Predict the structure.
Amino acid sequence: MRRRGRAVMVAGTAVLLAGCQTAGLLTQGAAGLGVATGKLTPQQAEALTKTAEATGRALEKFTPEQEYYLGRAVVATVLTQYRPLEDRRLNEYVNLVGQTLAAFSDKPETFGGYHFLVLDTDEVNAIAAPGGLILVSRGLLECCPDEEALAAVLAHEIAHVQLEHGMKAIESSRWKSAGMTAALEAGKTLAGKELAEVLSTFEDCIQDITSRILNAGYARKQEYAADRAAVEILRRAGYDPRGLRTMLEEMAQRVKAADVRGFGKTHPHPSERLTELEPLLRLLPDEVVGRTERTARFRKQMVRR
Amino acid sequence: MRAVHAIVGILGAGLLAGPLCGWGAGERTMNVQVQKAELRASPSPLGAIVGSAGYGDTVHVLEEKGAWVNVVLSEGTATGWMHQSALTRQRIRLRAGEQEAEVRASSGEQALAGKGFNKDVEEAFKAKNRNANYAWVDQMVEFRVSPEQMRAFLQQGRLQGGQGGTP
């Protein structure tokens, strides 16, 4: 995989921070909020959600097990460029926040579960690999003023997993390859030429996913969809989804300060995401309990470092 | 087992008659598509865990509630709720020698199998890409939050946890 400059990294970040599916889960966020605020009956919300699911059917050819092996390889590849932060307590804390949020997502169960790891870099970035392996940089943690903001970042990444954005980065031509044909044949043990072909396709898929998550970024509509799904995940867990606004405002400042050539052409600016998000945030109830307690434990974690 | 089928039959008939029989309703069985799926006492991420099922296990569907499916484990040993993301209607054919014999898919069902991108392919990938950092991937997946830890974390942070997921 090629090395990228810091500028690309920051650009990628804003994209990753943000998060495709069209109608599908976009509607779910709105449906849940509609119920919470009394604007939709539960029946109406359910009907909306079901329609959305039918419209946005995910890739059926990949099994959760295959997604799992792809995700592992993507992370193993990304970790050739980034060093994990060897801080057990901080990693455990991030996993507490992240795994708790994942339990409230629309896809709480993946083949191997959700797991989070902090990367020891000043760069501001977060990466969601298929199947639920999520990487978040120390630089990004340091941008978070409180647990609501951290939760917003993690919920956005969980939303990318839930919406299978990483898997959708796999080019359709991979399906026509000899390796994929061999892979989808009856479950015999692969060896020799067949194994080599499957391996080659596996590597191509990993390349597709890693280049998307590290370099190209997701499509604008995917990022918006992940933001909306994140709002719903946060709301269900009891976090204030406005933590996402806090993070996007922070990102807007950083994007302004950094060299982000070409970013504006291909990726939504945090302020555009804020604009997209505002109508949804306005549906939220004003009061969210426990912020003080959560901010206190967040600061304790960060100060300790 | 017969008793289980009887229950499935009675509840299944009720469900079919219901106005909201959607995803999976009326299906007699579904299959676990994740390594380990928790069985919960209530249809909520915070429901007490009353059992679990492994990859490829078949469960009998009793009822659905939102994203949750009330199931009986195939041995009839436990009943509880599983999230739909843990389940598939497709049959899962495990790799030769790992468990039960292959079951042919019928009526257009596609059989999933422990094939394609699997452990063997991962090993081949590792052998070819010596610098791929699987050591840290394996460490990362050891970060597991137990149900007790999650409950304590939610309580300490005064997270309502379940606003949208509880029954």
Confidence is low (pLDDT under 50) at residues 1-30, 47-60, 259-266 of chain A. Chain A touches chain B through 70 residues (CB under 8 Å). The first helix of chain A runs from residue 6 to 18.
